[in-house]
Amino acid sequence: MNQFNYAxxxxxxxxxxxxxxxSDPKFVAGGQSLLPTIxxxxxxxxxxxxxxxxxxxxxxxxxVLAESSGFQQGRRPLGRRRHPQDRRA
Length: 89
Fold this sequence. Notes:
Blueprint: E1 5-7, H1 12-21, E2 25-28, H2 34-39, E3 47-50, H3 61-66, H4 70-75, H5 77-82
Parallel strand pairs: 1-3, 2-3
C-alpha cells in the first residue's frame, strides 16, 4: 500500500488548512471505496483527512450521507425526511 499522511482535525477550519497544505489530499468520511481504490493502486493521495471528529458537521446533510450506510440514513431523522419511502423496521 502507498504511503500517505493521515489527519483527523476537530474543526472544519483545521480540515481546510490540512487540505490546502497537502499536494493531493482526499477527504474521508466513511462509506467510501477510497481505501480499496488506494490498495489497488488506482489512487495515490498524499493525505487523507478524516472528517469524523468534526462536531459541527455531525448533523449536516452532507455528513449524514457521507458517514453512514443507506440503512443508517433511513434510521436518522434527516434520512427519514429525505427518503420517507425507505422506512425500515
